[in-house]
């Protein structure tokens, strides 16, 4: 089992806890991280790019001039792609970019991402995060006490004071344990977990 130190909000050691090796200290499989990041980013794409093809542009229902005798090439409609104002040929149409990943792949990728932070000693566990009021300055000071210039902070349940205090810090993001994901873990250089959040994540991922 992997051991980590538990700190309080003043960066003082208050205990230790064991983390499951198959969740926080497993073999890092980079190809799974790559697949999962692609999966998340693809699902975020709107897929709303569209152009009008020759059947969607206005007009063009009438043959522009007679077939023979004008000296021009024969034409059937002005909505053809080679006319100015005509429809686009092979243009984009609304689509979904999302694709399927197996549940086991998603789980293994998340374990790999957590292990990346643990093995790099970029994982910090705090007993709890509590704030009496919404204060960006106080939360920034909390990050400085731990010497964290950027971090993903994971809490176990809704905590408006903590979530809103961190909202204006561009290098910090607060997530609840049920929303932790590979992309955000890898995006931020440090990972901060509350003790309860670590237990919740381990319980969900442990084999």
Textual characterization of the structure:
It is a single chain. The chain folds into two domains: 2-45 and 98-205, Ribosomal Protein L4, Chain: A (3-Layer(aba) Sandwich); 46-96, no CATH class. Helices cover 33% and strands 15% of the residues. It is built from seven helices and six strands, in the order E-E-H-H-H-E-H-E-H-E-H-E-H. It has a six-stranded mixed sheet with strand order 2-1-3-6-4-5. Helix 2 crosses helix 3 (103-119). The longest helix has 17 residues, at 103-119. The two termini are 14 Å apart.
Write the layout of secondary structure elements.
Layout (H helix, E strand, L loop, with lengths): L1 E6 L5 E7 L1 H4 L5 H15 L58 H17 L3 E4 L9 H10 L5 E5 L4 H6 L6 E5 L5 H6 L3 E4 H11 L2
Parallel strand pairs: 1-3, 3-6, 4-5, 4-6
Antiparallel strand pairs: 1-2
Helix pairs in contact: 2-3
């Amino acid at each position: 089992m992997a051991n980590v130190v538990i700190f309080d909000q003043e960066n003082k050691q208050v205990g230790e806890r064991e983390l499951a090796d198959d969740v926080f200290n497993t073999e890092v499989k980079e190809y799974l991280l790559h697949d999962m990041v692609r999966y998340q980013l693809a699902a975020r794409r709107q897929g709303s790019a569209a152009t009008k093809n020759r059947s969607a542009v206005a007009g063009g229902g009438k043959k522009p001039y007679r077939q023979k005798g004008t000296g021009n090439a024969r034409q059937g409609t002005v909505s053809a792609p080679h006319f100015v104002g005509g429809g686009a040929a092979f243009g984009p149409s609304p689509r979904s970019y999302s694709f399927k990943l197996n549940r086991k792949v998603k789980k293994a990728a998340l374990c790999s991402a957590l292990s990346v932070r643990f093995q790099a000693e970029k994982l910090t566990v705090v007993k709890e995060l509590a704030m009496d009021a919404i204060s960006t300055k106080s939360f920034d000071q909390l990050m400085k006490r731990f010497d964290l210039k950027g971090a993903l902070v994971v809490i176990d349940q809704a905590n408006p004071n903590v979530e809103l205090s961190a909202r204006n810090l561009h290098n910090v993001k607060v997530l609840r344990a049920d929303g932790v994901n590979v992309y955000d873990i890898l995006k931020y250089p440090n990972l901060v977990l509350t003790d309860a959040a670590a237990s919740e994540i381990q319980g969900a991922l442990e084999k």
